[in-house]
From TrEMBL:
Protein name, as recorded: Pseudouridine synthase
TM annotation in the entry: none
Species of the source: Paenibacillus naphthalenovorans
A Pfam short name: PseudoU_synth_2
Keyword tags: Isomerase
One BP term from GO: enzyme-directed rRNA pseudouridine synthesis
Length: 290
């Protein structure tokens, strides 16, 4: 299939031959949009054809899940299927209690509504409330299906930078240590033999005064994974009082999502998005360099 373009709620494709039934194009459709979603789309009347034109209803109008609220957020990337936004510190990705407002989903709703888009944002992954950086959201159900699939297959890559206490003995390494709940603390996690598998790779980018700038890559996505693993290594994040880090002039842990890479849902092309450092992280880095 080729010559794909959006027309309102529909994605139009031009194929090489006339289509008389869905069986004529089933193999190509399964390869492109997935068999499970294809069946669902077909049952709802979301597949039409005429001659060589095939129409898929991938962009149905939707109502927002939460009341839209303006917030000063930066959209780093956007297309018909997804968007990436630079989450500021102190903002949750989604509400965690009834009636809660001020989350990233509220802000994304504002962005979509104010730009005339009748769709619902669906976050593909999360960041801690006080961690900054890019968050990927799907703009329709099919895009969520494809991006969730990419997450499971580890084709969504997240690279972080952190300012950690002290100087790791090795310039790079892998932390392979399962993470579970701390039964003595409601929100704290800890390395535990009975926890969930967790793997973090780290690389020291720069050794600063009493601290290090470290790049981190996640192979799993456990709650507080980087914070727990770096504390376990003996080098907690600066400002991370929950995991043994010292106060360092930041009102949060010194952790920022630096780069996000993911496959574009329709074409599979690799998209790379970099998020600029927030002011507090950059200021602490400059202070430590002196």
């Amino acid at each position: 299939m080729n010559a794909r373009r959006r027309k309102g709620e529909w994605l139009e494709w031009t194929v090489k031959r006339d289509v008389h039934s869905i069986e004529d194009i089933r193999e190509e459709l399964v390869e492109t949009i997935g068999g499970r979603f294809l069946s669902k789309l077909n049952r709802s009347g979301g597949i039409q054809w005429k001659g060589r034109r095939v129409m898929l209803r991938l962009f149905p109008e939707e109502t927002l899940q939460y009341e839209p609220e303006w917030a000063d957020i930066e959209v780093l990337y956007e297309d018909d299927f997804s968007l990436v936004v630079n989450k500021p510190p102190g903002m949750k990705v989604h509400p965690t209690r009834e009636g809660e407002s001020g989350t990233l989903l509220h802000a994304l709703g504002w962005h979509l509504e104010s730009t005339g888009q009748r769709c619902r944002p669906r976050p593909i992954h999360r960041l801690d409330e006080d961690t900054t950086g890019p968050v990927l959201a799907a703009k329709n159900e099919w895009a969520q299906y494809r991006l969730d699939e990419a997450m499971r297959d580890k084709r969504v890559e997240r690279i972080y930078v952190a300012l950690v206490q002290g100087h790791p003995s090795d310039n790079s390494g892998m932390i392979d240590a399962p993470i579970g709940r701390d039964r003595h603390h409601a929100t704290r996690r800890r390395v535990s033999r009975t926890g969930d598998a967790a793997v973090t790779r780290y690389e020291v980018l720069e050794r600063l005064r009493s601290a290090s700038l470290v790049r981190l890559r996640l192979e799993t996505g456990r709650t507080h994974q980087i914070r727990v693993h770096m504390s376990h290594l003996g080098h907690p994040l600066l400002g991370d009082l929950l995991y043994g880090g010292r106060a360092a002039g930041m009102a949060r842990q010194a952790l920022h999502g630096d780069v996000l890479m993911f496959p574009e849902p329709l074409t599979g092309e690799r998209v790379q998005v970099r998020a600029p450092w927030p002011e507090d992280f950059a200021a602490l880095y400059e202070q430590l360099k002196k």
